Structures are given as structure tokens and as C-alpha cells.
Amino acid sequence: MEKQASVKSAQRVLELLEYFADVRRPASIKEICQSLGYPQSSTSVLMKSLVDLGYFDYEQRTRMYVPNLRLALSTSWIQEEMYSTQSLLRLMGDVQQRTGHAVMIGAQDGVFVRYLHVLQAHDRSRFALKSGALRPLFRSAAGKMLLTTKTDREIELLLHRANVVEQDVSLRLDLATAREEIARVRLDGYSMSRGTATPGGAALAVLLPVRRGAPQMTLSIGGPIAEIRRDKAFLLRTLTELVSPFRQAVVA
């Protein structure tokens, strides 16, 4: 009986993926149930699980679900030879080859950054992350870059939520400090964290150019604090140089 239930759940996940591949837009629980003939209660549980696992996004205002980039990247190796030279995976691979460090694609997930995809460092014993890992929005390099795209009001609301979630009182930020740091990052065009999100680890992050209306994403390099600090200029040049073709492709 348990085996049958597992097979049924797996079947529904695959049918969901095929459904979204067909409609190519966000969908509500009602639409999914009507199209696939699923019970509403079990569909709600399934979709919540896929959101919690980081493979789907949920828009609270519209109550719509949509597969996200993590899902696309986790299967993109199948068609890698068909991708353009500006593919995200190829970009990440180029950064990893030049630097030897871990490379991450990040996107906002509430008051956190979720690493949608991670290429591990050449030496995993020094710095290792998992795809799907969460980092604090206001304390991570990727998070600070994403915050540069927000309005003052959006930053204020997100900081309030982040401080409510943060159990360590010493890690809660005041609004003035947060705004000052975000303004500096916006001016610099990059962000660097040193042990504030991952103990002993540092990260450099830049925004990835995206088409209008697409979710904002970041490209980050992560490694031991001493190495990232020492090689900061080289790492920033590498990120800037390799992201440039992406920016040109988006503008075009």
C-alpha cells in the first residue's frame, strides 16, 4: 500500500511538470485540479511540498504556482548541447574553471536567498554548499544584491519580516543601517559577505541581467574568507567579464 502511494505521488509530480510545460504560465490549485482531476486537499499538500523543497514558487497575492529556475537547471544537462553559449550552466562552469571556487545562482525566497543551483569548488573540503540551501536576505552577499532592486518601502517590510524570523536578537538589523549598506552595495555594483551567512566562508555576488518582468537572480562565488579577500579584484573582474555577454544578450 505504501509503495502504491509513493508511485502515485511520483506520477502526480511528473504529470504536474507536463501540465506546466503545456500551459507555460502560473496556475492556481483550482486550475490544476480541474485539468488533472486531482482532489483539492492532496493537491494543496503536494504543491506546498514542492514550494518548500524549492522547485516551485508561490505568489501569495494571486495564489498561483509556477515551476522555478532551480527545476529548470536541475534537468538542463540533458539538453546542454542545445543551449546557447550564454546558458547559465555554461556561465557557472566558466566561472568555476577560472576561479576554482563554488559558484551559485541565487534568487529571493521570502526573507531568504535560495541557491537555485550550485557548482561545487574544486576542493570541496574547503567550502561546500547544496543546491536549495537558504541564506539570510540581509546578511548574505546575494541577498544584499537582490535588495538593491527593491524600493525603500519594500526593504522596510522585508526587514521587519526578517527581524521577526531571526531568533538571535544580536543579528537583527535596524532600518537605517540596512538602507545605508544597501545603498553602498547599489553604488559599488557588487556585494561581499564575510562569515555573516556561512561561518568561515565569504562570497562575492553580482546581479544577473534578466529580461523585464523576470525574477531577479544573482551570480556568486563562495570560498574561504582569506582566499576571497585576497583574490577579490581578480574574482570581480572574472564575474564582470563573464556576465557581460549575458547582459548584451538581454539588451538585444
Any descriptors?
alpha+beta; Arc Repressor Mutant, subunit A; six-stranded antiparallel beta sheet; two-stranded antiparallel ribbon; 10 helices; 19% strand; globular; transcription; HTH_MetabolicPath_Reg; Helix-turn-helix domain-containing protein; transcription regulation
Describe the protein in words:
The protein is of the alpha+beta class and 252 residues long. It has two domains: 6-66, Arc Repressor Mutant, subunit A (Orthogonal Bundle), CATH 1.10.10; 79-249, Beta-Lactamase. The protein has ten helices and eight strands. The strands form two sheets. A six-stranded antiparallel sheet has the order 5-4-3-8-7-6, with helices on both faces. Strands 1-2 form a two-stranded antiparallel ribbon. Strand 6 (191-194) and strand 7 (201-208) form a beta hairpin. Helix 2 (29-36) packs across helix 3 (40-52) and helix 5 runs antiparallel to helix 10 (232-251). The radius of gyration is 19 Å and the shape is globular. The model has no long low-confidence stretch (mean pLDDT 88).
